[in-house]
Design brief:
By secondary structure, this protein is α+β, with helices and mostly antiparallel strands. The chain has 3 helices and 5 strands, in the order ααβββαββ. It has helices spanning about 5-30, 40-65, 120-125; strands spanning about 85-90, 95-100, 115, 130-135, 140-150. It has a 5-stranded mixed sheet with strand order 3-2-1-5-4.
Length: about 150
């Protein structure tokens, strides 16, 4: 994962531990004061939320423990690989796009970040500027010409 992605996970973990966890603990305490827990919807909702939060914390901690953080600014080369920002042109529509290849949990197509496991990233890996890649999409095969490989 990129250093930026690792930082985002760390921030989310801190938020869950310092804001969400104490808030749900307080909500459970408040709900207990309302009496019979077996018919207390607020208590059950708060317990469900607590379970979800603890699951998220465990998942993020696991990802961070297994993460291999790659500093994209120290990478270079003309071939597309993890961390590269790739400019492409759709050969059918002449539409231009720019994608950075990132880890799975960092992907956000709207902001131009595609997962390394996505079809378009897998097609581009190892290619260079000027080459054409074909990508299987739900609407059929699309061809893209790689116009630039950057390390931003």
């Amino acid at each position: 994962m990129t250093a930026e992605g690792y930082h985002a996970l760390d921030e989310e973990l801190k938020r869950l531990k310092t804001v969400e966890r104490p808030a749900v603990t307080a909500a459970i305490g408040e709900a207990r004061l309302h009496g019979d827990l077996s018919e207390n919807a607020e208590y059950h909702a708060a317990k469900d939320r607590q379970g979800w939060i603890e699951g998220q914390i465990a998942e993020i901690e696991d990802k961070m423990a297994r993460a291999q953080v790659i500093d994209v600014s120290k990478l270079s080369g003309s071939q597309v690989k993890f961390g590269a920002t790739v400019s492409v042109i759709d050969e059918d529509t002449e539409e231009q796009a720019r994608y950075q290849i990132v880890g799975e949990h960092e992907a956000d197509v709207k902001s131009g970040r595609v997962s390394i496991t996505s079809p378009i990233a897998r097609a581009m890996i190892g290619k260079e500027s000027g080459e054409t890649v074909e990508v299987n999409t739900p609407s059929g095969v699309k061809a893209y010409e790689i116009t630039k490989v950057e390390w931003v």
